[in-house]
């Protein structure tokens, strides 16, 4: 049995993870912690894998603390930058356990991971590309980590293909064109009634390709969370891994 502790257990996502772990035949729930709780309660003796779903302002400190506690960590909180990821890598390199693992997912929905993968495949073949992400208004970050990750993948694929900048002659200060991520405009919609949605738009003269992923309920993320827990616990992915695509046969 994989002993799983959850940080952010009373949050919107954390509460779903609690129920998913309870229902998993190969896992047992160890500790459930939330804001203000002492993370050093979590040790390698009582926990194999920690699932961390909190907020961007505290997630880095949480992960660094948990790495210091000698446990593997699965992170669903967004807001990660290259500088913050570098701090996690440094912390892992300083540990005595060469198999210790941290996994960070821009998105746990299988549909979103596949949409991201398909977008990378399509990117070299289109002159124009834009990303639109749509979420509920209680989401604290914008654009979403998923959309940023998708745009980065598109930008990388375009660069490898030798494509120039996406054409755009709009005469504005950029405020109404969305955040630019690696040359790709990313737009964020916050609307009551939505959950988590992403559209990737590609265009050539006379044609358009739209890739869309929709998660209508937070339960859609749980298969990805449980997959990540199992993969991290296997010991086959030491160090830092970013993106659920590493755990899928793509």
TrEMBL record:
Class of enzymatic activity (EC top level): oxidoreductase
Active site: 135 (proton donor/acceptor), 139 (proton donor)
GO biological process, one term: diaminopimelate biosynthetic process
Record region (Disordered): 160-179
The reaction(s) this protein catalyses: (S)-2,3,4,5-tetrahydrodipicolinate + NADP(+) + H2O = (2S,4S)-4-hydroxy-2,3,4,5-tetrahydrodipicolinate + NADPH + H(+); (S)-2,3,4,5-tetrahydrodipicolinate + NAD(+) + H2O = (2S,4S)-4-hydroxy-2,3,4,5-tetrahydrodipicolinate + NADH + H(+)
Location within or outside the cell: Cytoplasm
Domain Dihydrodipicolinate reductase N-terminal: 2-108
GO cellular component: cytosol
EC code: 1.17.1.8
Gene3D superfamilies noted in UniProt: Dihydrodipicolinate Reductase, domain 2, NAD(P)-binding Rossmann-like Domain
InterPro entries cross-referenced by the UniProt entry: DapB_C, DapB_N, DapB_N_CS, DHDPR_bac, NAD(P)-bd_dom_sf
Record-linked PROSITE patterns: DAPB
GO terms for MF: 4-hydroxy-tetrahydrodipicolinate reductase; NAD binding; NADP binding; oxidoreductase activity, acting on CH or CH2 groups, NAD or NADP as acceptor
Pathway(s) where this gene product acts: Amino-acid biosynthesis; L-lysine biosynthesis via DAP pathway; (S)-tetrahydrodipicolinate from L-aspartate: step 4/4
One Pfam family matching this protein: DapB_N
Chain residues that bind NAD(+): 8-13, 37, 76-78, 105-108
Keywords assigned: Amino-acid biosynthesis, Cytoplasm, Diaminopimelate biosynthesis, Lysine biosynthesis, NAD, NADP, Oxidoreductase
Main location: cytoplasm
Domain Dihydrodipicolinate reductase C-terminal: from-to ranges: 114-247
Family: Belongs to the DapB family.
Subunit details: Homotetramer.
Job of this protein: Catalyzes the conversion of 4-hydroxy-tetrahydrodipicolinate (HTPA) to tetrahydrodipicolinate.
Name the record gives this protein: 4-hydroxy-tetrahydrodipicolinate reductase
Organism of derivation: Bifidobacterium cuniculi
């Amino acid at each position: 049995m994989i002993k799983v502790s959850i940080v952010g257990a009373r949050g919107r996502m954390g509460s779903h993870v609690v129920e998913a772990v309870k229902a998993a035949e190969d896992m047992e729930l160890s500790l459930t912690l939330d804001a203000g709780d002492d993370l050093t309660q979590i040790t390698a003796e009582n926990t194999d894998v920690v699932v961390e779903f909190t907020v961007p302002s505290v997630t880095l400190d949480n992960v660094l603390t948990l790495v210091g506690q000698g446990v593997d960590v699965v992170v669903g909180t967004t807001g990660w930058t290259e500088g913050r990821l570098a701090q996690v890598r440094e912390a892992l390199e300083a540990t005595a356990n060469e198999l210790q693992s941290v996994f960070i997912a821009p998105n746990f929905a299988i549909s979103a991971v596949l949409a991201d993968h398909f977008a990378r495949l399509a990117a070299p073949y289109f002159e124009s590309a834009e990303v639109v992400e749509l979420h509920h208004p209680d989401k604290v970050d914008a654009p979403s980590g998923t959309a940023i990750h998708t745009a980065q993948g598109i930008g990388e694929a375009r660069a490898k293909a030798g494509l120039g900048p996406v054409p755009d002659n709009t005469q504005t200060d950029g405020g109404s064109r969305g955040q630019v991520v690696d040359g790709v405009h990313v737009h964020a919609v916050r609307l009551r009634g939505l959950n988590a949605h992403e559209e990737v738009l590609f265009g050539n003269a006379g044609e358009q390709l739209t890739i869309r992923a929709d998660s209508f309920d937070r339960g859609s993320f749980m298969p990805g969370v449980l997959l990540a827990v199992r993969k991290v616990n296997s010991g086959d992915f030491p160090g830092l891994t970013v993106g659920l695509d590493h755990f899928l046969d793509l």
